[in-house]
Write a structure and sequence with these properties.
142 residues, alpha/beta, 2,3-Dihydroxybiphenyl 1,2-Dioxygenase, domain 1, Signal recognition particle alu RNA binding heterodimer, srp9/1, 2 domains, four-stranded mixed sheet, 16% helix, 37% strand
Length: 142
């Protein structure tokens, strides 16, 4: 079994995935818009006119890991809460690089990247797209 986080967006999925691709040194492996999907012919009339250009499914790979995402249809998007996407990194320099890149334009920084009793570096923020992140570079176990 593999656990793959799936992120929901309010219409900014493609922009967010391009940002994540650059910030994480990853690759968008798949991106399909609603208008390209078999669902396009059954789109509700109340959807915005440009909804065909929004993302029905995207997948990004970075560091041998994968996450997915989509634009939630109107009236189905909820602000993320109760979780964070955690990135475990091997060294403080990598933690600093990733934290700086992903937190650029962040909505909020809950904890700046710093040393803690469990980590050489740890920080928490909500990025410009509303996704909560934690970056952790743990201390070696004795």
């Amino acid at each position: 079994m593999k656990i793959t986080p799936h992120l929901s967006f309010d219409g900014t999925c493609e922009e967010a995935f391009k940002f994540y691709e650059k910030a994480l040194g990853g690759k968008i492996a798949f991106l399909m818009r609603y208008g390209e999907s078999p669902l396009a012919k059954d789109a509700p009339k109340e959807w915005p006119a440009d909804w065909g250009n929004k993302v029905i499914h995207a997948r990004l790979t970075a560091g041998g890991q994968e996450f997915a995402g989509a634009d939630a249809p109107p009236d189905y998007y909820y602000t993320p809460q109760g979780y964070s996407v955690t990135l475990e990194v091997d060294n403080p320099e990598e933690a600093e690089k990733i934290f700086k890149a992903l937190s650029e334009g962040a909505r909020s920084v809950h904890m700046p990247l710093q040393e803690t009793f469990w980590a050489r570096r740890f920080g928490m923020f909500v990025d410009r797209y509303g996704t909560p992140w934690m970056v952790n570079c743990g201390k070696p176990l004795n």
